[in-house]
Write a structure and sequence with these properties.
Layout: H1 2-10, E1 16-19, H2 26-35, E2 45-48, H3 57-62, E3 67-69, H4 73-92, H5 105-110
Parallel strand pairs: 1-2, 2-3
């Protein structure tokens, strides 16, 4: 990881993004503490911490991570919600039973420029 980060910085990268498949953050912490933080021409460090999700973003900031990305959690949360609505519509043949889980159409329209 370290040699690649150095190569990207030397090539003019504006930042470095790292990712680990480990279930704990130790690999990332080690990279930050013992290696990356020692770089002379350090660029912003970005991490995607999906696999070590017990880690708090403030812990990453403490080891000089500049940006934390919650990679796909909104998508992963949206899909089960959409499935629940679809199943309700198929079960009842209408939307009345699932309306309480949906935002009002007036809120949807506020998301579309020029509609309100």
């Amino acid at each position: 990881m370290l040699w690649r980060a150095r190569a990207y910085i030397e090539a003019g990268a504006d930042g470095i993004m790292i990712h680990s498949r480990q279930k704990d953050p130790q690999e990332v912490f080690e990279f930050c503490k013992r290696s990356y933080n020692q770089f002379e021409n350090r660029k912003p460090l970005v991490v995607v911490f999906t696999t070590y999700n017990q880690t708090m973003d403030h812990q990453l900031q403490e080891v000089s991570v500049n940006i934390t990305i919650y990679a796909n959690h909104l998508l992963r949360a949206a899909y089960p919600a959409m499935m629940e609505v679809a199943e309700s519509v198929l079960t009842y043949g209408r939307t009345k039973e699932i309306e309480h889980k949906c935002i009002p159409i007036s809120e949807v329209l506020k998301l579309i420029p020029g509609t309100i």
